[in-house]
């Protein structure tokens, strides 16, 4: 007969981690990497390569960049009118350097839903937006690291 234990007081011996192994070096003490392990085809996960941490940074950069782009685009839409003077046009282009990813994604999605563009064209637009957001997000993360560590 199985022994009953309270649910909150149990912990699986096989799974000592709680959330993520991104910060833990999981190599055995006697582990010696193969010299060309980094260059082998199909070796995406190399022990000590911090794949989970890198994926987390990638996701934070993408979502942070898209969020920044959307916030700036919406604030600009609320406060500004169509640019009529040269100064307003320069300001518009400066704002679009940050807000353009959100605007491009919105326009591409609207065009794709109306069947005015093809799936490859929409995929290309989404890829451009992804890269644009990644660059904006890396900028955000760089500023955050600088502010934290000086």
Q: Short description, anyone?
A:
With 150 residues, the chain is mainly α.
Whole-Å distance between the termini?
60 Å
The geometry reads as flat
Uncertain segments are 16-24
Largest beta sheet, briefly?
A: none
Overall residue-averaged pLDDT value = 80
Q: State the total count of DSSP E strands.
A: 0
- Assembly type of the chains comes to single chain
Cα radius of gyration in angstroms: 23 Å
Q: Strand portion, in percent?
A: under 5%
- What's the SSE pattern? HHH
Supply the number of helical segments. Answer: 3
Helix content: 55-70%
Which structural category fits the helices and strands? mainly alpha
Account of the protein in words:
- The chain has 150 residues and is mostly helical.
- Helix content is 59%, strand content 0%.
- It is built from three helices and no strands.
- Helix 1 (51-79) crosses helix 3.
- The longest helix has 31 residues, at 119-149.
- It is flat and about 65 Å long.
Q: What labels describe this entry?
A:
3 helices
Helix/strand layout:
Layout: H1 51-79, H2 86-113, H3 119-149
Helix pairs in contact: 1-2, 1-3, 2-3
